[in-house]
Design a protein that fits this description.
The protein is α+β, with helices and mostly antiparallel strands. Helix content is 53%, strand content 15%. It has a 3-stranded antiparallel β-sheet with strand order 3-4-5. A two-stranded antiparallel sheet has the order 1-2.
Length: 236
């Protein structure tokens, strides 16, 4: 995991601002792990990808994910604080030696970002799930007529084999006592932090350009401590 500078974060934001969240996550991983090719990152299992994103978040923004959600019963707005260290207790599967997921209808490899990109635009969740399983099916003869029970069975086995592929949070509303689970989308948290950070940097660039006539490159060349002191003097 490498540290990144402000200019790289600005470039990352510009590259991914209008992209699909799947691509945003891969763009961020590409910046954090430049020694790994984009094609290889796209073929990481979802659990391995999410572990990389959690490590990225911890390296760039700290150990605590901050966010908001709403109670699904009363609509009360709830603040979330999640320690990313507790989310990575499970080991991601070793891509070179991970066992195949075996079910009644054949063997399956673990899904990747590339697989999700092929099914994400399906209108029906059930159809998307079936298409995903068909892409990941590596043995078993003719394609079976998928039933809801079959899809659920293979999905549960995949989740067991790759526990970081999807992170579920158990939530409870302090107002009405309602309890529910929600899926944590780490890419969404990362991109929200990038968006907020980039906006602060652009505001600083605008402030210094207005006060001193400095260019973007000149502002970004300053350390954070120097920019903070200059901002204090400008605002004072």
């Amino acid at each position: 995991m490498r540290a990144v500078c402000n200019s790289e974060l600005l470039d990352l934001w510009e590259k991914g601002s209008a992209a699909h969240p799947l691509d945003q996550g891969l763009f961020a991983l590409g910046l954090a792990f430049p020694e790994i090719s984009p094609d290889e990152l796209a073929d990481w299992s979802l659990g391995r990808r999410n572990r990389g994103l959690f490590e990225l978040y911890r390296s760039w923004f700290g150990t605590v994910l901050h966010g908001w959600t709403s109670c699904t019963s009363c609509g009360e707005k709830l603040e979330l604080e999640v320690d990313v260290r507790t989310l990575t207790a499970h080991d991601a599967p070793d891509e070179s030696s991970a066992e195949k997921v075996v079910a009644d209808k054949g063997s399956f490899r673990l899904p990747t970002s590339r697989d999700l990109a092929q099914v994400v635009h399906e209108e029906s969740f059930q159809i998307a799930a079936i298409r995903l399983l068909e892409r990941c099916r590596i043995s078993g003869g003719d394609t079976p007529p998928w039933s809801e029970q079959m899809v659920e069975e293979v999905g549960e086995k995949m989740a067991h084999a790759d526990p970081l592929a999807e992170t579920q949070l158990a939530l409870r509303c302090p107002t009405c006592g309602h309890e529910w689970t929600a899926t944590l989308d780490v890419t969404r948290f990362i991109w929200a932090e990038i968006e907020a950070y980039v906006r602060r940097i652009f505001w600083e660039i605008h402030t210094f350009a207005s006060a001193y006539g400095w260019t973007e490159a000149e502002v970004l060349s300053l350390s954070g401590a120097r920019r903070a002191l200059y901002l204090e003097m400008v605002q004072g």
